[in-house]
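agent> fetching stored inputs for the guanosine-5'-triphosphate docking request
agent> found them:
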Amino acid sequence: MDEKVGISVGYEETSGPKITVVGIGGAGCNSMNLLAKKQEEGIRLVAINTDKYSLASSLAHVKLQIGENMTKGGGTGGDPEKGREAARKDSDKIAAAIEGTDVLFIATGLGGGTGTGASPVVAEIAKETGILTIAFAIMPFDFEGPETIKKAQEGLEELRSKVDAIMVALNSNIKNGDVTRSPKEAFGEIDTILYESVIALRDVIVKPSDMRLDLSDIKARLSGRGKTVIGVGEGTGERKVEEALEKALHSPILERNNIRGAKSILLHIGLGPDTDVKTLFSIVEAVIEEAKENFPEVEPNLKMGYFQSEDMEGRIRITVIATDFEEEEVGKTMGEEEVAKNMNATAAPMGTSSAASLPEEQGWDTPYGSSTKGRTNRRNTRVKIPRSITGKDYLFGGEEEDEKEI
Ligand SMILES: Nc1nc2c(ncn2[C@@H]2O[C@H](COP(=O)(O)OP(=O)(O)OP(=O)(O)O)[C@@H](O)[C@H]2O)c(=O)[nH]1
Ligand SMILES: [Mg+2]
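agent> prediction call returned; pasting tokens
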């Protein structure tokens, strides 16, 4: 087993903050595939698994087999207790693999044994050394059955309590995308979200910017914040701003697919000399509008950074890091009718309840709870683009039939 544990592995080229992505268990390791293929500068990739066969095909810089004596190199067979135990037994190796890290991403699929059990242990180890830790948790498909889903939900709660910030992706949401794509391409969207979030964070911190956000801004905004959305969008051509905003503010895969109710926002914009300052401010305005949508009382605390460069001519890149979400009380800010409509429209993975039986305590953070609390799907998550950008009243995003709702 290749165990190239050492501070410089994966970071050789960087003089800036060190970012480590740890993939844990089968899904966690797979989700790093795109990062591994691209071998981005300043990012160390660590694959952790009980399953040595899965590790063998990983392209990570560091591969850690845990719990060797317990699982004999196989997986845990879906037992989180074994996953937890395996990580505890090899905690020294894990600590060595993440040593020197400034920002740690923990990528994991919940519902099995290794990812569910070992991820919170890795988070604990990171916390002990004061590393800012962001979890990227993939929730199982609705068809995997109640036992797996229960394990995943319990794992999510535990992981959430151990990390600074958490992004949750739903495997079931793959169905919301273009279903004519090949499975590889469709599943690749999850890898892409992880890739884009990691790269965006690195670029926000290290890219020379005209108005800079730095590691301390990231730390201040993400430390101990819980649910988090990192959205990245790039647009080109005439509708570049609309395109970039729509992509940055709505993810079809993430459980929280919008930034509504976010009280803390970091906004980073990359643009070319062809974009005027009016457009820059319009983007800020659109992001604030979106955060206040359904939450008129929320006054987001927004910090902006931007860089302008020749090679961004004709393009715009928008990165939004949103945290501190105000929860929406079902039925308070939406009428009953709208709640019911959202329930029908929302791809509630388990299809468990109607609006009438909606338990209010179930929030967006319970992916299978089918609540609409702060959670909406593409149908009612249209980005409002200020008139100054479009020349018309707000429009963009969502589906045709929603046009009249605006
Ligand atoms: N998107 C995606 N999800 C996956 C993949 N593999 C597994 N999953 C999901 O992740 C959950 C956990 O599965 P694994 O990651 O294989 O489990 P593990 O952590 O390796 O745990 P054990 O094998 O039981 O020790 C599953 O229930 C699936 O929903 C994958 O390659 N991509
Ligand atoms: Mg496994």
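agent> quick read of the result: The longest strand covers residues 315-325.
agent> awaiting further instructions
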